[in-house]
Design a protein that fits this description.
single chain; alpha/beta; 8-stranded mixed sheet; 11 strands; binds S-adenosylmethionine; SAM-dependent_MTases_sf
């Protein structure tokens, strides 16, 4: 059954839908290479100013009910799980710890192309070795696309697959194919978290069409849900009301502000090397009424995360 609990963010959506006065051209700036430390630095700042704690709260409060209790009812089974784009593993390890309460043995395959992030994940596993007793890891430093190519006829099924904020790196034209692969590999639950259409990225994309060239068309929550509709699969979805503190973006001397603006536009050097006109347009948009708001002297924007849960056995075709 399809259950939708989407919040509407009417003011922000109205602002983003206003006709774009002028196209913004930042094509002279390098795109962030997602496997580099340049990306890691900017992502760390983005996370520091995000209340992604909502995602941690979801894992603490909802994960068991939405995922754990639906997995095989046999605690002696060795649970097989797959993490795609796992990053430094902070969210994944939290989920594994939840699963550990029910399953003594867990076999976790980690697909993450960045060597640096995988090293951080491995360190976290080492630091938490007591809590993770009984969990084995198969480290795959590669992209999901490479992992799929190397395992075309995979027969061993996963009981649980997670993609937490990583489906941006699948090209839209390939999305249905990869979502189909994931569902065929899974016999339990799939958890996807992705920026919602009314997240800051979705609204910047609407306001400045083409700004994300190279990464785009931008994959957002709705794009993923459309893909499962195309595949004839039902899913459950909800929206986590995350926020982002953008105050630093308005301080020209703030290093964090520079890195955060870079992350929002997925480029390197917007403040110091970018066209001044583009910087002005972005800042005006971020400050515009109905888009950001002030609380405790800080500027905030809504930046919801879409949670999508798929049960592959619901496939109709
Ligand atoms: C926004 S981060 C999210 C990391 C982690 N899941 C989290 O929520 O903290 C996106 C991650 O996807 C990884 N990634 C990029 N391209 C990928 C691809 N083609 N396949 C799998 N992962 C990819 C990046 O290296 C990065 O660690």
């Amino acid at each position: 059954m399809l259950t939708t609990y989407c919040h509407t963010y009417s003011l922000s959506t109205v602002v983003a839908n206003r006709p774009t006065a002028k196209a913004m051209d930042i094509s002279s700036l390098p795109r962030i290479d997602v496997s580099s430390t340049v990306y890691s630095e900017r992502y760390a700042v983005y996370i520091a100013y995000s209340n992604k704690v909502k995602m941690m709260e979801w894992i603490s409060d909802r994960f068991d009910e939405e995922i754990t209790y639906h997995l095989p009812n046999n605690g002696d089974l060795k649970l097989s799980i797959l993490g795609i784009g796992s990053g430094d593993g902070k969210f994944e390890v939290k989920m594994i710890m939840k699963l550990k309460k029910k399953f003594r043995l867990i076999d976790c395959t980690v697909v993450e192309p960045s060597a640096e992030r995988m090293a951080s994940y491995r360190k976290l596993v080492k630091d938490e070795k007591n809590a993770l007793f009984g969990v084995t890891f198969d480290w795959r430093q590669e992209t999901f696309q490479e992992f799929c190519k190397a395992n075309p006829d995979r027969s061993k099924k996963f009981h649980f697959v997670s993609l937490i904020h990583c489906a941006y790196y699948i090209h839209k034209r390939d999305l249905d194919y990869y979502m189909d692969v994931i569902t065929r590999w899974t016999e339990g639950k799939i958890l996807i978290m992705q920026d919602a259409d009314v997240s800051i990225f979705g609204l910047l994309d609407k306001k400045f069409p083409g700004v994300y060239n190279g990464l785009r068309p931008l994959i957002l929550g709705d794009t993923i849900m459309d893909s499962f509709k195309t595949l004839g699969m039902s899913f459950e979805t909800s929206s986590l009301p995350c926020e982002l503190d953008i105050t630093a973006c308005f301080d020209n001397d703030s290093r964090d502000g520079k890195l955060l603006l870079d992350f929002l536009l997925q480029v390197v050097g917007l403040v110091d090397d970018g066209p001044p006109e583009a910087l002005k347009m972005v800042k005006e948009f971020l400050k515009s009424e109905g888009f950001s708001y002030t609380r405790n002297g800080r500027n905030w924007v809504e930046n919801p995360t879409q949670v999508i849960i798929i049960t592959p056995t619901s496939r109709k075709m």
